[in-house]
Amino acid sequence: MSEKTVLLQDTTAGSTTGTHDFFGIFKAALRESNLADTVRLVRVADMGIYNQGVVMTILPEDITYANVEPNDIKRIIGVTLKHGNPVKDLLYQPKFRQMRLVLKNCGRLDPSSIDEYIAADGYRALLKVVEQQTPEQVIADLTASGLRGRGGGGYSTGLKWKFTREAAGDEKYMICNADEGDPGAYMDRSVLEGNPHSVIEGMLLAGYAIGATQGFFYIRAEYPLAIERVQKAIDQARERGLLGSNVLGSDFSMEIEIRLGAGAFVCGEETALIASIEGKRGTPVPRPPYPSVKGLWGMPTCINNVETLANVAPIILHGAEWFSGIGTKTSKGTKVFAVTGKVRNSGLVEVPMGTTLRDIVFEIGGGIASGKAFKAVQTGGPSGGVIPEKYLDTPVDYDNLQKLGSIMGSGGMIVMDEDDCMVDIAKFYITFCVEESCGKCAPCRIGGYQIMHILNGITEGRGTLEDLDRLILISRAMKMGSLCGLGQTAANPIISTLTYFEDEYREHIVNHRCPAGKCKALLKFSIIRHLCKRCGLCERACPEKAISGDREHGYSIDADKCTHCGVCFDVCKFSAVERV
Amino acid sequence: MIQATINRKPVTVPEGTTILEAARQVQVKIPTLCYHPDLPPTASCGICIVRLEGTKRMLRACCTPIEEGMKIITHDPEIVEVRRTVLELILSNHPNDCLKCGRNQSCELQNLAADFGIREELFTKFIGGNPKDDSTNAFVIEPDKCIHCGRCIEICQEIQGVWALSFLGRGFNSRFAPAAGQKLVDSPCVLCGQCASHCPTGAIFEKDDTLQVWQELQNPDTFCVVQIAPVVRVAIGEAFGMSAGTNVTGKLYTVLRRLGFNAVFDTSFAADVTIMEEASEFVERFVHKKGPLPLITSCCPSWVIYLEKQVPDMVEYFSSCKSPQQISGLLTKTYYAEKMNVDPSKIVVVSIMPCTSKKAELTRTEEMFASGYQDVDYSLTTRELARMIKQTGKDFANLPDSEPDHLLGDYTGAGVIFGTTGGVMEAALRSAYSFITKEKLGELEFEDIRGLDGVKELSIDVAGSKVNVAVAHGLGNVMSVMNRVREARDKGEPSPYDFIEVMACPGGCAGGGGQPYGVTDEIRAARAQGLYQDDREHEFRLSHENPCVQQLYKDFLGEPLSHKAHELLHTHYVKRTTG
């Protein structure tokens, strides 16, 4: 048995010491000190700490060191591994630290081992409720904790449970929504792959509270590893008597099965998800009746997102007060974000609610990778909006993001710099929504298509100022007239980019210019004669043969043949190709 | 009761009332497009949105039950703007061919565009370019005219249980189509036409045969004969502003003559003949044990298609008697032609039916040509006839009454109630009782098998034996009855029913797929009442008491089920699947 574990992140790009063999050096040092059998050295890919050289965490003391050099190894072995004391000057002192509740054990536990989960207090919350708490008490705890749905809606989890419990029905169902679909979002996937038991325990707790006898994981089929691990975890839990008949010897019985989503984004919407499980076409139906009253096969059904469920066991164990002590007035606990885009350190970030966007983007994310100017951050995926620089100090919670015209969503966060065109971003998201619209309701089906068409026109130089009015009209109609969340929010990227970056739209329309240089059809390329060294590289590289000339007379670009691909701009070593 | 306000006026309504229904109490008409009072709301169009006062929250009036204390605003500038934008979006995805569309002036989208004063096209037009489907004889599908309200699918899948239509594809490219994208004729479609009669636009429209009928009428060499189905008389008035159930039989005879028909017959007469054969068939099977029980009625052509495709193991129970439409046509080109000395090759028989499926029945089997010619040449729906009448400028409501041509025109009360669910059974029981007991029933009206319950049952005592009957309408209600018969058969027990009537459409022919638009249960019931009233006002209320029928058998057919009757009035069915 290992007495200690060292989690080692030694693959950080840009480290100064050439640490590719750090693992080997450490391993050798352990052998030398006769600790090879008692210290387990584990290489992990991502500990959520970036730009800090070699990072390691020593368990069970939970001591984290950063910027560790090979010659620090001896001290670490002597002081920490042998005596359990910290080496003070190596301690990782973040300017801003993540708070990992949901992701706590992701990467620390073997996801295929139920024993490791149990050793880390796993299933203790379940034991506690079946032995000591009534379902009503569990619901009261959850309600008091202030936990809100992490899938995007932000509805009180406790209330959702309460309504499902109180609804009349011969049978009740618990569904875990693992149909994560926002572009760039992978929070749920990481939890399911990294700590499946935490979600299963959450489902069992929810099932106990609402009175469900059957649970379903609705996992998108594009997540094969998550499916495999969840299935294994379900089997393990069943073997241990943690799910199935008479859980832990109590009267509570619940089965859990996996259902696969076939890739439709809209099936993350509750009523469409239910239709999909029932084997029908995955389209939303009007609410009310809400699923909590009439859901799967007409029975009261509670649907919670993966991250929401992963929060449940800790709340039961540590108490509602502990949880509600984290976060802001209206949004409690932490939130996992998938920070991507132009940010230096992209990855999963878990922070308390109320952390400012600036801290997430610049402190944890390390700022803009290219060193260029920050332009905006997009939150909430295709249902969200862009937030410009001036609102970066906004504390992130459900309500603040909504006030800024965006949403929390499931936690996607895409950082953009001055090379990103806001019209193009709006076009990207509406194209996504057009592809993912189920086609049931008119505002979403036709409205999205019309917006896409208008934005295509603007980015290709065919836009008119009246198009801006049309965009507003359609966006409003979609927001108010669509049947489900997908359609109601699909225009958010358009509304928010228009709100904060209307000038950029006008620049496209009036001057046929894309300030970010992104919209190819609007770009004009020319060769600056006095900078051109007449090397001819551009002429050879041009796929359209739009560049003509020779080394004697110089080169020029035929605007009629040019397809604005930008190859000449990229290949020129002398900045002699101008792009406007 | 729920108390709430709509546009600041108080309303008190029962729990479960939708905002749309509640608004009527304060004389507010919230515009709708996908909503149809006959169907559960699909909530797909977004036109009916209303606002919770003082909030940004919008609700769909069609499907949201009003709650205690709700304050609803149905019209404000923003709501109207959203509705208008949604409407303009729908129009951007709809062809502009109103002038040559069958639904011109009866199109719900067109009406809404008129109400909203749409004068220009705000958005670029994108039309799908999906091909027409005219693979059946009954109607034409034009997917590009579809506004995705989902009514046709709702009624085809949920009410009829046929599942011929569904949405295919996703998003902007989604379209309604026969399942798996096949042609309608290859789909499970039974041609009941409920989709067409519930479609708000011209996306599903009966195959229009009026032009051919006009040509026949104008051809000096033809002898045009028309027959009108029982329930047409109590429904066509709706197309001329009369209330549902108004009986316009006399006006119909007049107008048909004025349209140029040489003879005007009534399908209700042929219904009496059907009863002669079918009731005799029942007596054969029930009393003389010649043939299996239950006897199942077969006058509904959609039911025939359904049975052949979906429940082929029941084929042996089917009555072999032809439908009244076919019998009327057959008798026209044989009996009538002989009696009146008209060359049957010159006779063109047109039927006016509440039904789209009747168009396909005309050529169903070779037995539909028993006269030596196609027995019925054209079948028009009630809606098509209404259009023909309008084309000629006849002031239908003020036309004088007239009589039909008597040979094939006089009918009994039993013949006319064929047009509603339970009517065929009631008519058959009246005669079968007399055939068995040689007595006349004391009470002719069977309340138990009237009305709109999906499955109705009745047990009557006939000469000391119990006759158990079942009546089902709306194909979605049929399988429970069939399954009871199957279960008993599989166990070797006697059938729970001796006689079963099935009509494919909800309400029977009263709610037929070729009837005027806007049908609801209220309207179905009113049409049925119109027929029951007609029955009560008849001197003869039993088919076999019809003097013209008696004369027909005496002069031409001999006895019911005679060799000649079999040759001319009976047909057979085919198991089209092995299921």
What would you note in describing this structure?
The complex is a heterodimer of chains A (580) and B (579). Chain A has 580 residues and is an alpha/beta fold. Chain A has helices spanning 22-32, 73-81, 114-119, 124-132, 135-145, 157-166, 187-194, 196-210, 224-239, 270-277, 306-318, 320-324, 357-364, 398-403, 422-436, 442-459, 465-481, 485-490, 492-510, 537-541, 567-571; strands at 4-9, 39-43, 55-59, 63-65, 173-178, 214-220, 255-261, 301-305, 334-341, 347-352, 374-379, 385-388, 412-417, 525-527, 547-550, 554-557, 577-579. The relative contact order of chain A is 0.08. In chain A, 38% of the residues lie in helices and 15% in strands. In chain A, strand 3 and strand 4 form a beta hairpin. The mean pLDDT of chain A is 92. In chain A, helix 5 packs antiparallel against helix 6, helix 7 (187-194) crosses helix 8 and helix 7 (187-194) crosses helix 9. In chain A, the strands form 5 sheets. A 5-stranded mixed beta sheet of chain A has the order 10-9-13-11-12. By secondary structure, chain B is α/β, with parallel strands linked by helices. Chain B folds into 3 domains: 2-91, Ubiquitin-like (UB roll) (Roll); 132-206, Alpha-Beta Plaits, CATH 3.30.70.20; 211-569, 3-Layer(aba) Sandwich (Rossmann fold), CATH 3.40.50. Chain B contains 18 helices and 17 strands. Chain B has helices at residues 19-25, 77-92, 108-115, 151-159, 194-198, 210-218, 249-259, 267-286, 301-310, 324-340, 357-361, 382-391, 413-416, 423-437, 478-491, 521-536, 547-557, 563-569; strands at 2-6, 9-13, 49-52, 58-60, 71-73, 139-141, 165-168, 175-178, 204-206, 223-228, 263-266, 295-296, 347-353, 378-381, 455-462, 465-473, 499-503. Chain B has a 5-stranded mixed beta sheet, covered by helices on one side. In chain B, strands 11-10-13-14 form a 4-stranded parallel beta sheet, with helices on both faces. Chain B has a 4-stranded mixed beta sheet with strand order 12-17-16-15. In chain B, strand 7 (165-168) and strand 8 form a beta hairpin. The radius of gyration of chain B is 25 Å and the shape is globular. The two termini of chain B are 49 Å apart. In chain B, 55% of the residues are buried. The model of chain B has no long low-confidence stretch (mean pLDDT 95). The chains are: A alpha/beta (580), B alpha/beta (579).
